[in-house]
Amino acid sequence: MKSELQKKLYDRFPHMFRGRDKSIQESLMPFVFECGDGWFDILWRLCEDIEKLTPLEEFEVSQVKEKFGTLRFYTWRSTDEIEKRICKAERESAKTCEWCGEYGHRRNKEWIVTMCNGCYEEYLDGKRR
Predict the structure, then answer these.
(1) Rounded CA gap, 31 and 108, in Å?
(2) How do beta strands 60-67 and 33-34 pair?
(3) From residue 80, how far is each of 15, 38, 39, 50, 97 by CA, in Å?
(4) Where are the alpha helices (DSSP H) in 16-79?
(5) Coil, strand or helix: which one is 102?
(6) How far apart are the C-alpha atoms of 66 and 23, rounded to whole Å?
(7) Residues in the chain with pLDDT < 50?
(8) Any idea where the domains of the chain sit in the sequence?
(9) pTM for the whole thing?
(10) At what angle do helices 40-53 and 80-93 cross, to 10 degrees?
(11) Smallest Cα–Cα separation from 72: which of 56, 100, 92?
(12) Average model confidence (pLDDT) across the chain
């Protein structure tokens, strides 16, 4: 994810992403958001919802990444309600292009990705990696 989009998430939800300043022995957030820009809106809505569901001093995101073509959002000290909301975001990512945010679906080329037709064509043509 582009650094300016990550910064927006860090600035708006600093309490959730306080692990970004920790060592990798304590958190994987120093690796930043390991997913494409197209999932920014999904992440933003997820963070807004989590903010309403838990005392923030008791919650922390430990890693955000793409795996098998869908979003993964790992946390410390979560609740059942938060886990339900995370699952919803992960399902949404399975039909959202990771690069542009438009409707997409999972494809298997070199690895499993979720992309719209246009981004997938660019990917196949070598214009985007």
Answers:
(1) 25
(2) parallel
(3) 20, 27, 23, 11, 27
(4) 40-53
(5) coil
(6) 21
(7) none
(8) 3-95
(9) 0.90
(10) 170
(11) 92
(12) 89
Distance of CA 93 to CAs 59, 86, 124, Å?
A: 22, 11, 21
CA 61 to chain centroid, in Å, comes to 11
Residue partners of 62: CB distance under 8 A and separation at least 6: 19, 27, 28, 29, 74, 75, 76
Chain length of the chain:
129
Q: Is-contact 111 67, C-beta < 8 A?
A: no
> If 0-12 CB within 10 Å is exposed, 13-18 middle and 19+ buried, where does residue 32 land?
middle
CA–CA separation, 19 vs 23, rounded Å? 8
**What's the confidence (pLDDT) of residue 32?**
76
